[in-house]
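Sequence in, structure out. Go.
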Amino acid sequence: MLTACMLPLRMLGLLMLMLSLCDADSICPTELNPLTLDVPRVIEKYGASVEVNCTSTEADHNGMYWRIGNTDSRVIIGESLISQSVSLSEWNVTVECRIMLNETHECSKELEITIYQNPTVAVFPVNRAVEGTLFELQCNITDVAPVQNLFVRWFKDNQTIRTDNFTNTTTTPVSESSTLTVNISRAEHGAEFRCEAQLDFGPHGPQLPVDSEIYIVSVNYAPEFKNTSEDFFVHEGDDVTLNCDAEGRPQPTFHWKHDGKKLSDTNNLNITRVNTSGTYNCSAINSLGSITKEIHVHVTMNIPAAPAVITTPAVITTPAVITTPEPYKPRGCPLVLTPAKIVVRFGDPVSINCSTSVAVPIQLGWEVTSGNKRDNGTSVTWSLEKVEDWSIKSVCFITYGVNGIDQQCFVELDITLYKSPDIVSVSALDSGPVMVGTEIQLKCDIINVTPVQTLTVRWYRGTDILRTDVLDENRRIPVNMSSIFNFTAERDYNGAEFKCEAELQLETNRPDLGHNLTSSPYTAVVHFAPEINEGTYTKEVNLDGHVTLNCSAEGNPLPDLHWNYTTAENVRETTRGHQKSLTITGATSTNAGFYICVATNKVGEVTSTVTLKMKGQISVFPWWLLIGLIVVFIFIVIVVFIVLKHYKKLGRYSFVLDKDNHGSDIPMTPQSNGTEDTV
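Output:
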């Protein structure tokens, strides 16, 4: 019977031992766990620090402590609340509040930690944007954590067109990418595509900033003529300018031919003193194609002067000498254009009046390619509801009689067509960050603008003008232009905003129309080595006093900070923002010494030393040195004294051995003049 009862008791003891060795959480169900964290979940940036309070509802316990990773803090007995500062400088850090219910049982409550790091974003094209093809943009998201909370949104002209998320569950920083494919068309030239990367922790998490980058697409297409065939009518002996009038991207090159002969490689062909009609072939070529069109020039004959009218008097007494008077050559053409010079925005209306001082002109009119004409006898008005021809040419002519001779002259309208740029943008030829002392090259793209010879580009840093470019190119149709600005990166340029402004300096009669356009700013990213703000210094503290040593640094990328020092129980390290501090409580003489702050980033590393001294404490090193020297000196003096005394005795006495009494005391006999005296 006794044996039968002992077996269950032994099994019960074994069961109790197994339970005592089990993990604390296995014997602490959620509903019975006495521990509560004031912040059950922490979402903080890598490198930050948090303060956590742990409260116990169990008053009778054997102590509470914190377990951070594999390290346990000091056990606190008799308290129901303990606090802990946690540095989030390890990606997989674990934090537990633990309580010892008795000698064998513990409970724990783990802090749920999410450490994040905002990404950097870069957008670049995978292929060339050609009309009618699939165009790909890639968004690279670098150094982001945790990636499962990352959302990437694609925008086109501020309209969301796609959203990506990621299933990777790693907690350390990774790099991801998202690709957008667009069936591109010419109408999307200048469209702003951007990708936006954001860590989203839901409505109760931190509202983190959005990292975004813009890419302005330039759509390429083969050359196209606005008019496939053109006819020009000119007077014999006049000059004429033919315009190829083609557009394409990249900007096409041009070739002119007449009767199989090559004439020019410019978009305009100037022909002087035309005397025969002919057909001219113009070809426009770029990397995507080639087209050719014919331009027909028709030469009209000048109106001949009317024959002289000869009148004969009624009575002729002598034979008449018949002479033909010289044609009348007026000093100037009796035509006035109002306005005499006009600057018109492409697509706007235009109206010009041509008037004459001739009372009854034979003929007064306009020779134009299009538009309406209204004749009022001594004036004729030409108007156009919409100027849509870049090669527009308008000539007012008059035929009138002078002394019975028909004269003809004309005045060509001085008209300038302009178009303000569609887009002005700034980009870096090397989009990545640069080091201090290296060269940054920025490019200002001015899209679809004319006339270029009136275009001025100004470069700004903030509100300061850095450089002004005047572009020297004679183009009558809209083109894409660019200005390059080189400068050496300085530390102060990090975060500085650079922009360019394109202005057409025109004398227009419409001051309400803006002729300048400013780009969005380009923010420079300059990397430089760390610099510690506090520098090297000395600090004093009273015995049993408290002192805090601070260290913060500037640098790009943001430096990592750490302290090198002799560890002690009363030294505590905390991080607040970009500052790392050491707090010493109840200072003792062992805390005196050197504390070295080290700031490191990818560019370099610097250190700063803080010397901590105890107030009222005498420096021991000089005194020990002095005491040591004194002891050595006294020792030397004693040795010298003994030696001298010994030698002095040897000079005045001799020792005589008593042969009969070995081992007995030997009397010393004084010597005199070398003679030994006996007793």
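Check: DSSP finds two helices and 54 strands in the chain. Residues 1-26, 303-331, 652-666, 668-679 have pLDDT under 50 and may be disordered.
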